Amino acid sequence: MSEPLRFTLNGQSVQAEAPAGERLSRTLRERLGARDVKVGCDAGDCGACTVLVDGAPVCACLMAAQQAEGRAVETLAGLVEHEPMTRDLAESFQDFGAAQCGICTPGMMVSATALLRDNARPDETQVQDALGGVLCRCTGYRKIIDAVLAAGRGSARARQGGVGAAIRKLDGAAKVAGAEAFGDDIAPPGTLEIRVIRSPFARAAFSLGDLDGFAARPGIAAVLSARDVPGINRFGTIPGFIDQPVFAEGIARFRGEAVAAVVGTPEAIAALAPGDVPVAFTELPAVATMAEATAPEAQQLHDARPGNLMCEGFVQQGDADRALETAAVVVEGAFET
Questions:
Q1: What digits encode the pLDDT tens for the residues 311-324?
Q2: Where are the alpha helices (H) located in the chain, listed in sequence order?
Q3: Fewer CB within 10 Å, N or C, the chain?
């Protein structure tokens, strides 16, 4: 472990013991308790973990913690506490219904704060550009853009009661403050973590070595495989077509299929290197198209699915035009959604 990392977090001097190369998002969340920094992808794609470093928005998952040494880091919780502009944004987000599930809201509001600090009255294109690095799957973005524009103009909606009036989400306040607790926010620091070992090939035979011996390593709590699945080692979404193993048994049928899982302390899991877990793969020929999969000589994906067909069906259609001509009543309509 290197020297303690020191920087300013939401106006307070902090220090943390972070190994070289650790993500700033992990240091903030796991070592400094800043669970208002949400992690959605760990790849810089979703922007949920956006924080301000010396006033500029960055994806905390793409920044090494050591790069924050001596700098000023601001997260949503600190901005809501200290920045009037962010508090106005929080009100506007609630007025416009811009915070729905809430996982992207911290990234949206932090990015919007950076914009409004530089440009108090942005136009719609400028708002879109500023928020372009944060993805939302709930709102369609329209309400978020409206909320930022309204906050910049100081034109929050007047809140009135009465039948038909818009009301705020009952759980909206926690979302715009970064206090909403999602699954990864509930586990306390030091909670055991899991690393799933997956097939690197589209189709492969594999063998497992001494998993029990590997599980005796310091920091490793368990190594799981198909032998540890009670009952039937299968799952699926449609009754009668449940054919996906929890852990593959001898043959992996797609790239990324789980063959084992290691459970251990965060430090032990982080230290795992490729090839540490005793699993040996042998690549096998794979089929990648429907024509190949349905050819007479094709390898069978599942023994109980002859011809590599999950199921077959037949849909019969009569004479629709004749049915309309002879119907006692015909109703037509135009519909819009």
A1: 888 888 899 999 99
A2: 24-26, 76-82, 84-95, 105-118, 124-131, 142-153, 172-177, 183-186, 211-215, 266-271, 290-294, 320-326
A3: C
